[in-house]
Sequence to fold (241 residues):
Amino acid sequence: MPKVFDFPQNNRLIAAFSSKADGNMSLSYGATADSLDNRKNFLEKFKIDYRSLVCAKQVHGVSVVYATQNDAGQGALDYESSIADCDGFITDQPNLPLAILTADCLPVFLYNPKIPAAGILHAGWRSSEANICSAGIKLMHDKFKSDPADLLAAFGPAIRSCCYEVSEDFKSNFPFAIFRRAGSRYMDLANLNRTQLINAGVREENIFDSALCTYCSKDAFFSFRKEAKAAGRMLSFVSLT
Ligand SMILES: [Zn+2]
Fold:
């Protein structure tokens, strides 16, 4: 079964991520022949129409887009219609499923039950270093007057510090996100994003972490590091009811 984030006060939110068993969800990476069927089957479990999905042409940047009903279906049936130069979405509109696709990068789920409003971010190391969490939280504030102290946040499956080895010349703006173990250097992507969230005003107790590692979770998830070009993508989404 897909993992669902069971936030407290989640009466207006559906938030979940797929696993490898649900199949490749990408229309552009990995084996794509069954991707539309995979999306349909996965989203049907939540009574969501896969044709209304909003997807992004992810570029490892910090651009977050406020999605409205006008965007419904962008990238749902073909990659080309995905929203360009975008690594995250927010919305306050119901029945508008917002998706990101990952295989090692960290999916960050955001939810403000008081508005209600929701967001989803694609946080690889570049976007994390550039603070995409702050960009998403700021846009929610600008559009909906969302108070970061009211936000609930969650992390889906990603490559974790157990497996995310980086080279000696890898430069990080955040030394605390890099640590040394048995002579090698590792990055802690989740901890970096946790810190970015807290610095942006999210309460630590409102951050929920699946703690799942895409690399070492016994083939439960696609991993770009493990499978390279053959890797499919998991789909993470939020949808307000
Ligand atoms: Zn691991």
Q: What stands out?
A: The mean pLDDT is 95. The radius of gyration is 17 Å. Helices lie at 35-44, 125-129, 132-144, 189-199, 224-227.
